[in-house]
Each structure stands twice: as structure tokens, then as C-alpha cells.
Amino acid sequence: MDNKFKSALKKAVLQHDLSKEDVVTLLNAAPGDEQQLLFQRADQVRQRYHGNGVHLRGIIEFSSYCKNDCYYCGLRRSNKDIHRYRMTVEQVLDAARQALEMGFRTIVLQSGEDPWYNVGTIAKMIYGIKKMGDVAVTLSIGERSRAEYYLLRFAGADRYLIKHETSDRNLFNKLRPGTDFDRRIQCLEWLNEAGFQVGSGNIIGLPGQTIESLADDILLLKQLDVEMAGIGPFIPHDQTPLAGAPHGDLQLTLKALAVTRLMLPQTHLPATTAAGTLHPRGRHMALNAGANVIMPNVTPLEYRQLYQIYPNKAGSTEQPRQSLENIISIIREVGREVAQDRGDSPKERFQISI
Length: 354
Known about the structure:
Blueprint: H1 3-15, H2 20-27, H3 33-50, E1 53-56, E2 58-63, H4 89-101, E3 106-111, H5 119-130, E4 136-140, H6 146-154, E5 159-161, H7 169-175, H8 181-193, E6 197-204, H9 211-224, E7 228-233, H10 250-263, H11 273-278, H12 282-287, E8 293-294, H13 301-304, H14 320-333, E9 337-338
Parallel strand pairs: 1-8, 1-9, 2-3, 3-4, 4-5, 5-6, 6-7
Helix pairs in contact: 1-2, 1-3, 2-9, 3-10, 4-5, 9-10
């Protein structure tokens, strides 16, 4: 085993802080002993800070419309072959109610960047869900104004996820025409200022990406001190400009996840659906490499198959209860249990009364 690798790994475990060179060294962990030791250490840190519980977040994908034209996403506005939909407030609340009855403690409201839903409409969803009980609400609806973020926070939303996707500015500009990297980071700063538990994350395997830019992604997550980080592999969609590109490497995804766990021990890291789409045991492997969250889909089945960020998404043909049962089976197979608390960040945030 390489001494440089052993030194970087020891530093990560003891200090949770690494140079870019150290991060690159760990991301280059060789198959076999190095890779397995990296995963083992990340899992030990996960156990130390989060215990044996896996937090479940129920996702409601309420709109497939998007104003953006990102090259890697099937929801891009130029995709004319996708069937678009928008759920009503009543449909969202009904789906949330069913999710709470199944035991979920967090509801994630996710959509394309769809300005058709103004702040008042989103606030009705948030307020209606919060009235149902002690449940956290996460929003994943993209870039909004600073004032809108404050209003959504005061409506009762607890968390907000907005991935930076890639820290490589040139790659960001190339793959996300009409958007701006600095604006993306500004949104994350506004969200933190507004008192949200903030999540970001990146895609592994975008065409043109390098190990060095992946290291910068992890260092950016550390700099932002995010409370959630979604790290998943790129899966090409046939109706995008990247249709012929290879998918992201699952092993590199797992290594990035493990290094992020070592760098951000208290951060919630999901075993992503994309990992489970690439490999039948992708989420099993992610849970053993530092992940402590899974996000089952609780979108009504009539809409679930239409939300195609990428094709053949794992669980897209299952009813919500079946998805939950399958996820619980995965958790038990790796010797873990479903967490019973909401999984809030240990950071102090100002509280909202509704």
C-alpha cells in the first residue's frame, strides 16, 4: 500500500481536513486494499458521528417543467419528447400525508426550476405539510431570489438542496448554458443566511471532468460547510446533447462519497438512486462507504415515470409503499436500521413558529 495514500487517509480520519493534493491521492485509491481501507475508514467515521441509523427522506417530484437547458438532464427545456406535468397543491399534500402515514419524518419537495410555482404556492405546500405533524420539509426547487428564500424559510421549510453540480467553471458554463456559477454559490450563501439546513453536491463522471475538479468539488463542500451533500454518478439521457457519453464510474462515485464523509463527518450523505440505477447493489455499497441517508420516491406512480432526469431510474415503476419496503430491505441487508428521528443538523439554526 502506497505510503502517500496511508498518510493522507490517516490525516483525513484524525483531522477531517485535507489539502487538494491529499484529496486527489484518496480519490486515486487503487482497487483492492487501498479502496477497501478507504471505504472502511469512511464507514467507521459515519458510525462514530451518526450511529447505525439510516434516515429516510420521502421525495415528491411535483413538476417536470424546467426553465433551464442543462446538457446532462432529461428535464431540459429543449427536450420536446418528454411529457410534462405539474401537481396541484392538493395532490402534493395528499402524497405527503400518505408518506407520513408510512413513517417518513422528512418530505422533500423537488421539481425542475419551474417559476410557474410562485412563493405563495410553495408556501401553501410547506404550511400544509407542517400542520400534519413533527415533520421536516426540504425544498429542491433551484435558484430563487434572496427574498424568496427568506419567505420560504418563514413559511416553515427546514432544509434546501441546490447542487453546485461541478466546481469547474468552464465545465459548468459549457453544460449549463444561460446559468452562472457565481449565482449558484450566491444562492447557497443566501440559504445559509436565511437559516436553512443547506445541501449541495456534485455529479461524478460528467464529460470533461477531471480528478482535480472532483477534488475541488469536495473542498467546496467543505468550504460551504454543507449539512447535506448529494454525490451521484452521471447517467446520460437519450434526449440530451450528452446522449452518447459514458455513464459515471460507480467506484469513483463511492470513493468521492467516502472522502466527503472523512472531510465532513457530520454531514448527511445519501446513497443515491443513481447509484442504485447503475448497479443493483449500488445503494448497498454507498451505505458501506459512508452514506447515512436514502431518499425513497413517494411521488404518485402516474407521475413518477415522467420525471426523467435520467432514464430507467431505480424504483420508477414501484408504488410508494413498495419502494419503502425495498429500501428497508437494503438497510437491513447491510446491518443497519431505519433512524427514528428527523435527522436535523447539529448546527444551531433560528427556529420558525407556525
